[in-house]
Amino acid sequence: MPEAPSPIAAAYAVLLLIGMPALAALDARRGADLAAASKHRRLLYVSVGASLVILGLVTLGVAAWQDVPASALGWKVDAPAASLLRGLGVAIAGLALAWFITAAARLAGLRETEAVLLLMPRDAGEKRAFLMLSAIAAVCEEYAYRGFALWAISAWIGSPWLAAALVSVSFGLGHGYQKLAGVIRATALGIVLAASVIWTESLFPAIVGHFWINAAIGLGGWRYFHTGSDAAEPGAPE
Questions:
Q1: For 66-141, where are the alpha helices, taking DSSP H only?
Q2: What distance in Å separates the CA atoms of residue 133 and residue 144, rounded to the nearest whole number?
Q3: What is the C-alpha end-to-end distance of the chain, expressed in Å?
Q4: Can you list the pairs that 106-113 forms with residues at least 24 positions away whose Cβ atoms lie under 8 Å?
């Protein structure tokens, strides 16, 4: 059983769990104009990337302040080649699950949001920026949520799988701007990523998997998740 987190570490983990859904709800209430944001995608990618870097640095600062060992948060790779293969397996499993949930949601009549499609990269420059953002998101989100939050909540309540469920639900609710189908999809992907961390005791497969899931969707996979969307096709006049 992992050593119980300090009160400050536990409080920060709880803040992570409630913070993402709270911010998503605030954005929805404000009625964020994604159509306008999509006209300046590279600037949006930079803004989101900067926010994620700050999240990662704050998490690193709390971990250092509370003397949390890096290995406890999954910063270890025992076999790089095997870990890379596991990461690719996580990506394949995640993409297959995401496609299944999307198809099921469509059959159930749950309409997909256009928000994600509007934010997909359109030209070569945007694609490079999107790949960079995908890498930043993979490292920072996995470290904060499947690393710090999963460790702290697991040690606090004594059950890694219950902790994984709580972290994944928070992760899913944090994608509330994607409507119900997107929330379910993000929650399921969160469970896949958390399971890989629990089974391997390493963040590396989750980071690799997270990156390739985002990259695959952003570089063309969106077509299989937004069939029938009313949003403009990439390259079409906006």
A1: 80-107, 115-118, 124-141
A2: 16
A3: 54
A4: 106/227, 106/228, 110/179, 110/180, 110/181, 111/179, 111/181, 112/178, 112/179, 112/181, 112/182, 112/225, 112/226, 112/229, 113/177, 113/178, 113/179, 113/181, 113/182
* CA Rg value for the chain: 18
User: Domains of the chain: which residue ranges?
Assistant: 7-224
Of 220, 216, 223, 234, which Cα lies nearest the Cα of 138? Answer: 216
Instruction: Count CB-CB contacts under 10 A for residue 99.
Output: 14
User: Smallest Cα–Cα separation from 97: which of 13, 209, 16, 9?
Assistant: 209
Q: Which two tokens stand for residue 216?
A: 């695959």
Cα-based angle 1, 84, 76 (whole degrees, multiple of 5): 35
The model's pLDDT over 34-83, given as tens digits with 9 standing for 90+, comes to 556 667 788 889 988 999 999 999 999 999 999 999 999 999 988 899 99
